[in-house]
Amino acid sequence: MSLLKWLELKSEGWWLKEKLKPLYRPLLASAKYKSENRNFLKEGDNVLQAACNVLNEAGVFHWLEFGTLLGVVRDGRLIAHDTDIDFGVFIEDRSDDIARAFEQAGFTLAHRFEIEDGRYGLEESYVLNGVSVDLFYFTKTDSGMYCHLFPVVNKNERQVRELYTAVNTFKKIEWQGVDVHIPQDADRRLRDTYGDYHIPVKDWYTPTQALNSAIIDKAFKEWTP
């Protein structure tokens, strides 16, 4: 047995893994994205409708947010390079009934982030047929509303970002046979976050690049299965 092989076995390969991380991490990330995007392209429209049905039956007001709103308003369809569905929900409507309704419809809770036990900030993600549905819980104010993002930075660490928009009224539209709500001033809502959103940016990452978000010093709890 070679010395190299002996050392690898003795160390369970930890040192080799560390050396190879810069090489295989991008490959794993690319493979994960391609898999999620394939599922999204195949099932995205159906999952969006299924999630709308769940929230409607649970009596929870909701609207299209972030990339989903951007695709519907700008392109008339979901963005082809996206991987998930985004909804806004008012934090005052948070309830365990939402999780139960999604689970009864076949969705699986993938993660939850809470600030002050969900009273100040909350984000949830549910998965159906390989497509994630992210619920961003907004707090309404007299002049707009705000929610929170929890991006991964510095390897495995997360930061908390608060995102504010000067829009808090909505209208109903019909999209692909489904009644959905979008911000009354969708143009303002999208410009708040993306700037000139008419120019597609494929590698845009809203959790860290949203123009109307800022890092805040708030502790949070993360739940994953």
Lay out the secondary structure.
Blueprint: H1 3-10, H2 14-57, E1 62-64, H3 66-75, E2 84-90, H4 96-104, E3 108-115, E4 121-128, E5 131-140, E6 145-149, E7 152-153, E8 157-158, E9 161-165, E10 170-175, E11 178-183, H5 186-194, H6 206-209, E12 213-215, E13 221-223
Short description:
The chain has 225 residues and is an alpha+beta fold. 37% of the residues lie in helices and 30% in strands. The chain has one domain (3-223): Beta Polymerase, domain 2, CATH 3.30.460.
Q: What would you say this structure looks like, in words?
A:
The chain is an alpha+beta fold and 225 residues long. The protein has a single domain, classed as Beta Polymerase, domain 2 (2-Layer Sandwich), CATH 3.30.460. It is built from six helices and 13 strands. The strands form three sheets. Strands 1, 2, 3, 4, 5, 6, 9, 12 and 13 form a nine-stranded mixed sheet that branches. The longest helix is centred in the first third of the chain and has 44 residues. The radius of gyration is 20 Å and the shape is globular. The mean pLDDT is 89.
Number of strands: 13
State the CATH architecture: 2-Layer Sandwich
Share of β-strand residues: 25-35%
Based on secondary structure, the structural category is alpha+beta
Measured as a percent range, the helix fraction is: 25-40%
Number of domains: 1
Spatial extent as radius of gyration: 20 Å
Name the assembly state.
Answer: single chain
* Helix run count: 6
